[in-house]
Every structure is written in structure tokens, then in C-alpha cells.
Amino acid sequence: MGRAFVLAFLLLLAAAAWGREAAPAAENPQLEQRMMALAAELRCLVCQNQSIADSNADLAKDLRQQIREKLAQGQSEGDIIDYLVARYGDFVLYRPPFKLTTLALWLGPLILLVAGLIALFYRLARRRAAAEVELSEAERARAALLLGSPDEVDQR
């Protein structure tokens, strides 16, 4: 019986070690909704494949808090985005603007697709040209002998 109590105590102690402080409830639900919508448009600079809204990285938490504070101060979403772009560059945006520095981001996939299609067509054309070899009558007869009976040679 004593062992069962010790085991139960250790299990409860282990469960408490995994617990953490709950995220504070939003004082203003509309502000929190605006913050999450804006954070969903921004890339986490640590994770790089998640938005700030989805990431649990410390930097993402700090950026969400900064966005929350700036929205509470009355700044617009555009002002906040401009601030973050000035601080972290266009990389922080999931949809960077089309300009000279982001040209490779916008046109890179298209250029790679076109180059791949050109290489594919070139290779297929070379393969087709190599397959169109004319055989002489002697070569056809020899091929027929190797592949089948001599009767097939007489039929051609």
C-alpha cells in the first residue's frame, strides 16, 4: 500500500514538471484577433516555415507581444508591417513585394520550370533522333536472323 502512494506521488510530481503557465487571456478579444490576423501574415525568423502566429519560438512570442502593444497604442497594421520590414527586411513577409531585391523569389520558380521543360524537350528530341537509324537491307536481314526464323527474311 505504501508503495502505491509513493508511486502515485511520483507520477503527480512528474506531471507537475510538464505543466507551464497558461497563456494569458486577452483583455480585448478584437485586439487579439487583429494581432493574430497580422501575425499570420508574418514569417517567424527562427522557424522560417511558420508564421509568427503559429510559432512557439521566443522571438515569435516577443513579436506577437510587440504587435499587440502597437495595436493597443493605435498604430495601423500597415505601420506595424513597415516597422517590422524596416527592422527585419522583406524576409519577414510571407508575400514579399515585387521589386528588384525580391525578383529571384518571384521569378525563380518560373525560370526553373522553363529551364526544366527546355531540357526535357531537348533530351526527348535527341533520343528520338538517335532512335531513327536507317538500316541497310543486309542489316535488316541479319537482325531478322538474330531475332527470328529465316522465313521472316524471305517475307520482307
* Contiguous uncertain segments of 5+ residues: none
Number of strands: 0
**Architecture of the largest domain, CATH level 2?**
Orthogonal Bundle
Count of helical regions: 7
Structural class category: mainly alpha
The N- and C-terminal alpha carbons lie at a distance of 97 Å
* Fraction of residues in H or I helices: 55-70%
**What is the CATH superfamily label of the largest domain?**
Cytochrome C biogenesis protein
Structural commentary:
By secondary structure, the protein is mostly helical. It has two domains: 26-97, Cytochrome C biogenesis protein (Helicase, Ruva Protein, domain 3, Orthogonal Bundle); 101-155. Helices cover 65% and strands 0% of the residues. It is built from seven helices and no strands. The chain has helices spanning 2-18, 29-39, 58-72, 77-88, 103-131, 137-147, 150-155. Helix 2 crosses helix 3. The termini are far apart. The mean pLDDT is 84.
In short:
This protein is an all-alpha fold. It has helices at 2-18, 29-39, 58-72, 77-88, 103-131, 137-147, 150-155. The chain contains seven helices and no strands.
Keywords:
0% strand; Helicase, Ruva Protein, domain 3; 156 residues; mainly alpha; elongated; 2 domains; 65% helix
Write the layout of secondary structure elements.
Blueprint: H1 2-18, H2 29-39, H3 58-72, H4 77-88, H5 103-131, H6 137-147, H7 150-155
Helix pairs in contact: 2-3
